[in-house]
Automatic annotation (TrEMBL):
Assigned EC number: 2.7.7.-
Domain Fido, first and last residues per copy: 131-282
Keywords, alphabetical: ATP-binding, Nucleotide-binding, Nucleotidyltransferase, Transferase
Protein name listed in UniProt: Adenosine monophosphate-protein transferase SoFic
InterPro entries according to UniProt: Fic/DOC_N (IPR025758), Fido (IPR003812), Fido-like_dom_sf (IPR036597), Fido_containing (IPR040198), SoFic-like (IPR026287), WH-like_DNA-bd_sf (IPR036388), WH_DNA-bd_sf (IPR036390)
Binding annotation for ATP: E84, H218, D222, G223, N224, G225, R226, T227, G228, R229, Y260, Y261
Length: 392
């Protein structure tokens, strides 16, 4: 291997036989010099940890926190996919899930696969499976099982060189070239050891370091960004810091997309770990605060609509509340879904939804194909923040 042409704190750029330079990352944590946890970073870390604790506590007050988690999983799937260029909205995903024939595949399929990958990883962690490279490959296999990238060896680390740059650029024109396959496997092994080695550095800072390192290694031919963002929440759940998988940073990364990519590049090209970590911690605090406010608003909405259902249909309030509970899981709700979930007859299910619409709880809309769909619009309004697709 040729001698290093450039050396920086986070790794070295090594020239390759065909002329391009690939980046070989140093193992974590940074040690030349070590990460400087200055006063500003300490304050940001404490603020982020406090916000995260409040979110975890607030979610526990919800009548069915698992439904809240499921809603945030879907929102994260949309946002993380949009960062990569997907145009599907949250409404596209939810209507697709209510009746797949009603929404074309394409981008919606990409988001559905993200939900499946996230749920697969969470189920494995809940079952005691460790956070390993094997689990990362499993999630990637689910993520790319169909749709965009499905032809790019899902679930397998790459065996060839990849690169990041403008569409159509060559390897020699790339803005950034990750490590070649042999060095990539060494870097992944180092990352896995870092994930499981006790360290006095606070967990949120470790999450920041691990995410940047994963994106720098770029071990898959496609889906690296989405997989790397999944890793953040899985670290927190695996460490027991979150009792439920509630923290998803894609809203912050999407809102500050240019800075997100710039901070990652500043690690690689200038060794600026501190700038990246501080940016990451600001994101944790911001997203946790917003999610806590959303949880509080959902709780208030639930109380208000429970009362509206009891007032509008006193003789069948129990059935109405059961249908309302389903709407928190499926904001695009159909009579067939109510029938399947409750065992009610089709006329009873349809009547319940009609009465919820008359009470102003749901909105009755024509679907994109046959039948009707009942939309829990006020609930969706609380979830939609930031989920508009980015311009092409």
């Amino acid at each position: 291997m040729p001698a290093a042409q450039t050396s920086i704190r986070a790794g070295v750029f090594l020239p390759q036989p065909t002329g391009y330079r690939a980046f070989i990352p140093q193992p974590l944590p940074p040690d030349d010099p070590p990460l400087e946890v200055d006063g500003e970073m300490q304050v940001l870390q404490e603020r982020a940890a406090t916000a995260l604790g409040r979110l975890d506590a607030q979610a526990g007050h919800l009548p069915n926190p698992d439904r809240f988690v499921a809603a945030f999983v879907r929102k994260e799937a949309v946002l993380s996919s949009q960062i990569e260029g997907t145009q599907a909205s949250l409404d596209d995903l939810l209507e697709y899930e209510s009746a797949p024939a009603r929404v074309p595949a394409g981008d919606a399929t990409d988001v559905v696969r993200y939900v499946a990958a996230m749920n697969h990883g969470l189920e494995r962690l809940a079952g005691g499976f460790p956070l390993t490279l094997r689990l990362i490959r499993e999630m990637h296999a689910v993520l790319l099982a169909e749709g965009r990238g499905s032809e790019k060896t899902p679930g397998e680390f790459r065996r060839s060189q990849n690169w990041i740059g403008d569409a159509g650029c060559t390897l020699n024109e790339a803005r950034y070239v990750p490590p070649p396959p042999a060095e990539m496997h060494d870097a992944l092994g180092n990352l896995e050891r870092f994930l499981h080695t006790p360290d006095p550095v606070p967990l949120l800072i470790r999450c920041a370091l691990a995410h940047a390192q994963f994106e720098t290694i770029h071990p898959f031919l496609d889906g690296n960004g989405r997989t790397g963002r999944l890793l953040i929440t899985f670290q927190l759940c695996h460490a027991g810091v979150l009792s439920r998988p509630l923290l998803y940073l894609s809203l912050f990364f999407k809102t500050h997309r240019a800075e997100y990519y710039r901070r990652l590049n500043d690690v690689r090209f200038a060794g600026d770990w501190e700038g990246w970590v501080k940016f990451f911690l600001r994101g944790v605090a911001d997203v946790a605060r917003r999610a806590t406010e959303t949880a509080q608003a959902i709780l208030a909405l639930r109380t208000e609509d429970d009362a509206a259902v009891r007032a509008a249909m006193p003789r069948s309030a129990a059935n109405g509340l059961r249908a309302l509970e389903l709407a928190f899981d499926r904001p695009y709700l159909t009579a067939r879904a109510v029938q399947e979930e409750t065992g009610f007859s089709q006329p009873t299910a349809k009547s319940l939804l009609d009465r919820l619409a008359e009470a102003g709880v749901l909105e009755d809309r024509p679907a994109r194909s046959r039948g009707r769909v009942y939309v829990y619009e006020r609930y969706l309004a609380l979830l939609r923040e930031g989920t508009e697709p980015l311009p092409n």
